[in-house]
Amino acid sequence: MRKKVMGLGMILAMSAALYGCSEGAAGNKPTEHTTIEETTEKESEEDEKQESSSKEDEKDSKKESNKEEKDSVDEKKDKSDDDRSKSDTDEKTVKTVKTVKKVGKRDEAESDSKVTDEGDKETKKTSSTKKDESVESSVSGSSEVVKEEEKPAENIADNPDVQHQIKVITTASSMWYHPDDASFKYIVTDFDHDGHYEIIAANVQGSGHYTHLEIFEVAETNDGLLQISTPSMEDATGGSIPDIIQNGGYITFSNDSEYVYIASDHVHVSANEGLEAVEGFKLNGTAFESEYLAVKHTVGDTVEYFKPDRNGEVIDETQFKNCSYDRYGADHDSYETQFMWTDLQSGDMTTELMNSYVAFHG
User: Fold this and answer.
1) Is the pLDDT of residue 158 over 90?
2) Which residue, 48, 77, 168, 298, has most beta carbons within 10 Å?
3) Is the pLDDT of residue 153 over 60?
4) At 205, is the pLDDT very low, low, confident or very high (cuts 50, 70, 90)?
5) pLDDT tens, residue by residue, 37-70
6) Residue by residue, what is the 3-state secondary structure of the chain?
7) How far is 127 from 121, CA to CA, in rounded Å?
C-alpha cells in the first residue's frame, strides 16, 4: 500500500516538476515569442531589402537592357538615316549629272552618262535624256534659223575691217588727195573683189575731155597704199580710159577669174565730129586695163557703128548697144554696180569715203 502511495508521490512530484518547468517555460514564452518575432521581422526586412534590391537590380537590368535596345534602335535609325542621306546624295548627283548633260555639250553629256550609269534604269534615263537633247537641239536649230531669217542685213559700215581700211586710206590722203583742185572727185571701190579697197581720184582734162585717173590700193599688210598703173589715152591695145566720173549704175560682168565693168568714153574730135566708145575695164593685179568693145562715130548728121573701134568692122545700132553682152555674156554673170563719187567738200573725209564704198558694195 505504501508502495503505491510512494509511487503516487513520485508521480505527483514529477508532475509538479514538470508543471514548474512548463510554467517557467510559459512564463518565458512571451520573451521567446518576442525574440522569434523580432528575428522574423529582421529577416523579413532583410528579405524585403534583398527582394527590393533584387527588384531594383532587375529593374536596372531591364533599364540597361532597354537602353541597349534603344541605343541599338537609334544606331540602326542613324545608320538608316545615313543610308537614306547617302541615297539622296547619290540621287542628287545623278540629277545633277543629268542636268549638266542636258545643258552641256554632247560629248560631255555622254561622258557623264557613262560615269553615273547604274543598271538598265539609269541607261533608260540616259537614253531619254539624249532623246530630249535631240528634240531640244532640233527646236534650237529651228529657232536659230528663224532668228537668222529675221536678222536685219549687216551694215557694212560697222564692219571693223571696212573701218580699218577706210582709216588706212584717209591716213595716207597725201598720196591721192588734191585739196587745191576742185575738179577732182573721189570714190572707194574694190574692183577685183580681192578684199583690198581702192581709192580713186579722177578728173577730166584737155580739150578732148580726156579722163585722168589716179588709183591706189590698200596693201595686203593693211598698213599703207600701193599705186595702180593706168593706161595712156591711147595704149597698144586700142583702149583708153573711159569716162567713169559719174554717179549711177554700171553693168558688171563676172566669173570666177575677173570682174569687168562697162562704161562709155566720149571724145570731141571737132565741133561737129565726135566719138562714143563702149569699153570694158577691170583691175588686173596692179594694173588698170580697158578695151574697146564698139564705137559710134558721128560727123554732122551721119552716124556709123564699128566693132571694136572706128577702124574695125561695121555694125548696126543694135549690135552697138549689145556689144558688151556679145563680148562677155556667154561666160559671165551680169548685174549692176553703183558708183558714188564725192568731192570731199563736207569736211568729213571718213564719212564721205565710207558712204562711197557702201554704195559700191551694195
Assistant:
1) yes
2) 168
3) no
4) confident
5) 444 444 445 555 555 555 555 555 555 555 555 5
6) CHHHHHHHHHHHHHHHHHHHHHHHHHHHHHHHHHHHHHHHHHHHHHHHHHHHHHHHHHHHHHHHHHHHHHHHHHHHHHHHHHHHHHHHHHHHHHHHHHHHHHHCCHHHHHHHHHHHCCHHHHHHHHHHHHHHHHHHHHHHHHHHHHHHHHCCCCCHHHCHHHHHHHHHHHHCHHHCCCCCCCCCEEEEECCCCCCCCEEEEEEEECCCCEEEEEEEEECCCCCCEEEEECCCCCCCCCCCCCCCCCCEEEEEEECCCCEEEEEEEEEECCCCEEEEEEEEEEEECCEEEEEEEEEEEEECCEEEEEECCCCCEEECHHHHHCHHHHHHCCCCEEEEEEECCECCCCCCHHHHHHHHHHHHHC
7) 10
Could you tell me which of 285, 286, 282, 169 has the C-alpha nearest to residue 228?
A: 286
- The rounded distance, in Å, linking the Cα atoms of 339 and 357 is 9
Q: Is residue 137 pLDDT above 90, yes or no?
A: no
Q: With CA atoms as reference, report the closest residue to 285 among 337, 361, 331, 227.
A: 227
Asked whether 156 and 162 are in contact (CB, 8 A), the reply is: yes
* Buried-exposed string 154-191: b where 16+ CB fall within 10 A, e elsewhere: eeeeeeeebeebbebbeebbeebbeeeeeebbbbbbbb
CA-to-CA separations, 326 to 318, 329, 330, 334, 337, in angstroms, rounded: 11, 6, 7, 12, 19
- pLDDT tier at 76 (50, 70, 90 boundaries)? low
Cell numbers found for residue 45: 526586412
Higher pLDDT, 16 or 319: 319
Distances in Å between the Cα of 272 and the Cα atoms of 241, 275, 278 are: 23, 10, 20
Tell me: the pLDDT tens digits for 225-245? 999 999 875 553 455 788 899
User: Which residue did the predictor score with more confidence, 129 or 352?
Assistant: 352
- Rg of the chain on CA atoms, in Å: 62
Look up cell 595716207; give the residue: 172
**Mean pLDDT (whole number) for 69-84:** 52
